[in-house]
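Input sequence (282 aa), recorded before submission:
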Amino acid sequence: MNVRIVTDSTCDLPRELVERYGIEVVPLTVFFGDEALLDGVDIDAERFYRRLEASKVLPRTSQPSVEQFATAYRRVLGSGADAILSVHISAKLSGTLNSARLAATEVAAEAGRPIELIDSKNVSLGLGAVVLAAAEQAAAGADLASVVAAANATIGAVHVVCVLDTLEYLQKGGRIGRARSMLGTLLNVKPLVHVEDGEVAPFDRVRTRARALERLAEFVREHRGARRLFVACAGNDAEADAFIERVRPDLPGTEIIRGHIGPIVGVYTGPNTLGVCPVMPT
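Predicted structure, token format:
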């Protein structure tokens, strides 16, 4: 069975993996003032962080339209897919899944082929991990039910933790969630946040960047049995590379996937974020 995977650009998967598995990525939009830029099409992570640091106004984001999703679904089905699994950013963080659902209902009815949707309850690395697991099953020729099962199993096997320079971007962007409890206590403190039940929540807080990175490394070591480790950064590439070399000896047999936090997620995390996502066996 030819099952294809559709996702949105908050998955932050490396382009190489997207192309290898034929994943259809529907872009969200980032706005600098009145200038609208499609994530991964009109602007990439490197250009975004340069503009973010120079911008006096916080950029904003917009979910894909129903028509964008409908166009993507029709394109995928038109290329010969028997079914689609569409996996997206947590519904608690974005209305993207709702746009996808409306489009899927319309296109599945007209095409007579199934389009299943999944709320990953995650974002960025966590969403990417779920998408990749589904894409691997699809590439192996699995039927739709098996691909859905692989995605759902992976949702419970991932845990995203990030070191932020500041909570300012999360707060101003309206995505701070339960991490709001950390506000007012962060003078000279580096916050660590994680994704829990589909929203941002406090993970830890420490006094220095060095201690924050050590706490992140401790978290990775606590997941020594991980099948994969995703590591992504927001303009701080040298720091991310050094972090990987720091934890690699503790992770024999773990595949490490290095990526970048893209423009949409970067609006809310800010520059110099470092995130990890271990994927435990399912």
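Checked by second reader. The first strand starts at residue 3 and ends at 8.
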